[in-house]
Amino acid sequence: MARVVVDVMPKAEILDPQGKAVTGALQRLGFAGLAVRQGKRFEIEVDGEVTDERLGQIHDAAEKLLANTVIEDFAVRVEETA
C-alpha cells in the first residue's frame, strides 16, 4: 500500500489569521524570528501501485474537494511508507 500526501496552503496573498496567531504565540514564548502559515495535510492510502493515472485522479480530487483553489494552493506527492 502506498501513501499520497496532499498539502494545502493559503495562497501567499491571502491573510492567514491562524498562522498569525501561532506566530504571535511563538514570539511570546521566546521563539523569535519564526513566521507560520497554517495549512492542511491529507494522507491518502492507495491500494496497489501509484500510477500516473492514479496521481491524476488524486490531483482532480484535491482540486475539486480538498482545496478551495480560489484561496488555496495544493501539492500532491508520493510518500514512502515503512
UniProtKB/TrEMBL annotation:
UniProt entry tagged with the keyword ATP-binding: yes
Annotated EC: 6.3.5.3
Q: Name one GO cellular component term.
A: cytoplasm
Please indicate which superkingdom the organism of origin belongs to: Bacteria
Location of the protein in the cell: Cytoplasm
Q: Name one GO molecular function term.
A: phosphoribosylformylglycinamidine synthase activity
Q: Does the keyword Secreted apply?
A: no
One Gene Ontology biological process: 'de novo' IMP biosynthetic process
Q: Which Gene3D superfamilies match?
A: Phosphoribosylformylglycinamidine synthase subunit PurS
| Keyword terms, alphabetized | ATP-binding, Cytoplasm, Ligase, Nucleotide-binding, Purine biosynthesis
Chief place where the protein resides: cytoplasm
What catalytic activity does the UniProt entry give for this protein? N(2)-formyl-N(1)-(5-phospho-beta-D-ribosyl)glycinamide + L-glutamine + ATP + H2O = 2-formamido-N(1)-(5-O-phospho-beta-D-ribosyl)acetamidine + L-glutamate + ADP + phosphate + H(+)
Which pathway does it serve? Purine metabolism; IMP biosynthesis via de novo pathway; 5-amino-1-(5-phospho-D-ribosyl)imidazole from N(2)-formyl-N(1)-(5-phospho-D-ribosyl)glycinamide: step 1/2
> What task does this protein carry out?
Part of the phosphoribosylformylglycinamidine synthase complex involved in the purines biosynthetic pathway. Catalyzes the ATP-dependent conversion of formylglycinamide ribonucleotide (FGAR) and glutamine to yield formylglycinamidine ribonucleotide (FGAM) and glutamate. The FGAM synthase complex is composed of three subunits. PurQ produces an ammonia molecule by converting glutamine to glutamate. PurL transfers the ammonia molecule to FGAR to form FGAM in an ATP-dependent manner.
**Quaternary structure annotation from Swiss-Prot or TrEMBL:** Part of the FGAM synthase complex composed of 1 PurL, 1 PurQ and 2 PurS subunits.
Return the similarity comment: Belongs to the PurS family.
Instruction: Give the protein's recorded name.
Output: Phosphoribosylformylglycinamidine synthase subunit PurS
Lineage of the species this protein comes from: Bacteria, Bacillati, Actinomycetota, Actinomycetes, Propionibacteriales
Gene encoding it?
purS
